[in-house]
Predict the structure.
Amino acid sequence: MATSRARKIPQTILLLAATAALGMAGERAKAQDRVSNYADLKAPQHAYWTRPLEDPFTRIKADLEAGKLPLDYSSEKNCVISLLKHLKIPTASQMWVFSTTSLQLRFISPRNPRALYFNEEIYLGYIPGGRIEIVSLDPELGGIFYIFDLPRSGAPPTVERANRCMNCHAGDDTGKVPGIVIKSVVPGPTGGSLKAFRLEQTGHGIPFSERFGGWHVTGQSGIKEHWGNLIGQYDEGKLTTIPNEPGQRFDVSMYPVATSDILAHLLHEHQAGFVDRVVEASYRARTLLEEGGGKFRPPHRREMEAQADILIRYLLFADEVPLPKGGVEGDPVFKEQFLATRKETRNGLSLKDFDLKTRLFRNRCSYMIYSNVFQGLPDLFKQGVYLRLGQALDTKTPHPAYSYLSAIEKQSLHGILKETLPGLPATW
């Protein structure tokens, strides 16, 4: 991928991209956007701007502003490390992005990348010399956005709820609701975008040939056809690309770790696709329940069944792009930090167990089913999702849409969920 010659995109890559776009469009078409006002954030059933918040960052915000959370003020980097520790975000989840696809674009360039860190509930952005950005997931409302200065003087920060983030994080890329956005672009020498990919698409079904544009990618993997570690320029009307290797134009010691690991990128993509689908379904369900007086009317039931099927296909990795030959190695430190929160059965099985040879996980049901944003789905809808998920894993009357899962894997998934996930219907 790293070449200074004019880049000619192979026909097979174009076909993969078209297939992914059609898949995403198909999801939206299945939903049959009849609920035109589902994304009215001010509607009483959502009350996005006024209701009490339950996201993890809001829970510590008062203590942070009061100076009750001890931070290391000896340097920007150490302050970020201590903040990540309080938020229980792995430092090795770090990913560098050098395209100017952020609210703080004036600080970002190939010479000063933005770093992103995440766990299942919260995302943190850090730019040397810039401000801290937070996306914290409320169980019912989705993304809550905050921004604040690093407390360089040792004084506690003043945290601002960042309304401007909604311009991108509640737009077409997220189904108009507050979610996670991942941009993939070819940046110019100063970080501005020359070409964009996978618009309005997120998730593990995006072809690798559409990913990582404007990002640094480190670590060993068989994934070669991607846009990471490149900047571009136009030469006589043709886009040419130039290698931009990690650390080539900036000092990696300014950041908590020296990696932008491929495995972190893959998990970030999976989680973003999950969050956006779940949050959209949550807003749709609340709107229809409000219209139906706490129930789904017959036409509403059909729509929410379509939404449930979208979630189940995603939960079960139905459209996951397979890993190419060579798989993914993954940074050992990041793998250890990620696996530290695994939920396991008495036999030691977990939804977080990696495969990394042909696919991400050995047991193909997303660990994000345990997340607060999934558990915050309206209960009537969530129980319907559980029932349909049970049908998808049924080995006695197999569902043709899930024939890619063997009977043994279905039984394993059913057992893991039954043992580790509270609230499943009695019929499970």
Remarks:
- Confidence is low (pLDDT under 50) at residues 1-32.
- The radius of gyration is 21 Å.
